[in-house]
Amino acid sequence: MKSLFVVPIVLLASCGASFVPSSRCRVSRHSLLQSQNDRCELDDMEYQSDFNAENTWPSLRHVEATRRSALQLLSSLPAVLASASSASAGVANALDKTLLEVPTQTRETTWPLGKVAFSLLPLAGSYSRRATVSRLICLAKLVFLHINNTSSCDLAIRSIADLRNNHAVNKIIISIVKETIIDDGINGIWTFDQIQGVVNVNVPVRMTVIKLSSSSGGGLWIHNPLAPTPELIQQIRSLEQQHGPVRHIVLGTVALEHKATLGPFAQYFSRATVWIQPGQWSFPVQLPVEFLGVTQNNDQLRILPSSQYIHGQLSLEDEVASIHEPRYKYWAKKCPQPEWIVDIDYESLGPLLFRSVGAYSETAFFHKSTKTLIVTDCVCSVTKTPPKVIQEDPRALLYHARDSIDEVVVDDQATREKGWRRMVQFGLVFFPSQIEVVPLKQALSDANHIEPSMKSLGVGGVPGSLYPWTWHDNDADLANFNAISQSGKLFCPPILTKLILDREPEKTLEWVNRITQRFEFTHVIPAHLNNFVKAGPKEFSQAFDPLRSNPKNGNVFPQRALAEDLALLQEASDLLTKYGVVAESKVCDLEQARRVGRFAAFAPK
Q1: pLDDT per residue over 77-129, tens digit each?
Q2: 286-316, pLDDT tens digit by residue?
Q3: From CA 175, how far away is CA 177, in angstroms rounded?
Q4: What is the DSSP string of 175-244?
Q5: The domain at 105-133+177-376 falls in which architecture?
Q6: Does residue 13 contact residue 399 with C-beta atoms inside 8 Å?
Q7: Where in the sequence of the chain do the CATH 3.60.15 domains occur?
């Protein structure tokens, strides 16, 4: 009976979480955002810090222009910091208070469907808050390639040191900060993070914007658009003023949580061409993309050409014949190649069709000038520090940091990291092995006796402040998290390796091989969890090792989670296979998850 109670909760937890942060919670405060969130990694040729968008973006937006503007940027940093210190004085004063300030809901950060996850449920009700938060990343080579003398180099180092030591820019509440990845001052990549989720399990969802070169027609290219809050649209308009209009909007997946925001976002940029990932589906009736709110048509609404055609492995006739909808055939024949292919190459997987309903399909895009691979769900990376968009309202972190409902937690960095690692476990394996489910009657009773200062941690995300589980022995789950994280090493999420891609390992690994053989990338931008992950073809290929398991030839690669944490996924795989929803898995990892964990007693002998 316990498992019957937790399964719907844990299945919802796979989506992430949301809440309406309109209240306050009283907690003891040791420290908030620590200086380790700002870092200067000259060895990795990367410089990263956080800024107040309102005060610093006008100065930073010229960073792409010339050597002079780069030096001007460095020399102006102390003044910028002084301005930021003044503007954030109110926030700094809050450091000494025991009252945890949380962001209020405003028109600029609201979205009618809430923080949708793959269920498309309007999580946290309508018009829930969906702020956009990220950091500024500037490759150090931008600084040092344009510096020709020692004094200028010293200036750069001093400015970076000043920036790191100024704690006033570590805002507790951030409305929006851009994250910019710039290569040589000519081409740029901007990423924007929002939150998606349910049951207080939050994960970042990411949109990537690329400045196209004149050879690709100029303007902006957008991958997997986010919810078009007024805040986000304002920032994109700012980019348009500097770098040209949004000209291409690309949906590189068939996953519902990404395509749910495609139409509403594209309506703000009616002159842009929308590119759709092949294999889009809906249930119970197959509906055209217009039902997602897409208003573009004719040559402004296109299916992504197959990568086989783009790379000369398929004739135009065969390419057109493979397109099922007649309205896409005409423009596929008349304008077969995207003009942005000069800057951005790609390889597509699928669609891999399920036996019943649904499909998996994804395209990996390679930005040539920055050597960056942009993907959606196929790989990710996670480390112990919560992403900034998760810390923007830390209540979900504190909620999950409790070992039981009656615990009173302290808001410091260690507590946030503890909450984050538990959110990650819920989000990736759905039913962590280190929790014990509390019977429903007891959970309801416990919720009525929760310490008052903890009640608002679940407001808007969890009904009635419920906390229907307990965690084992405080930090016992750290080993479970470390098995997943492996210090940020790239990995394919367990739900894909145990339920989806393991049904088509040959096609998946062929796709992986095409990517690693054709694209010499140095970083990966996934749509979830860590951003701008330092990884090349070797690390990308290794992320799919679980699909290469074959006991017959002595190769068994462990999954990126402990076997006991995969028990629910293994049980789901067995049941869905039994009832014909999905095909049988073609990968054998010795199915350790059947013999350990919660469902071991039900495993076939």
Answers
A1: 334 333 333 333 333 333 333 345 555 666 666 666 554 444 333 333 333 45
A2: 888 888 889 998 999 999 998 888 888 888 8
A3: 7
A4: S---EEEESSSSSEEEEEEEEEEETTEEEEEEEEEEEPPGGGTSSEEEES-----HHHHHHHHHHHHHH-
A5: 4-Layer Sandwich (3.60)
A6: no
A7: 105-133+177-376
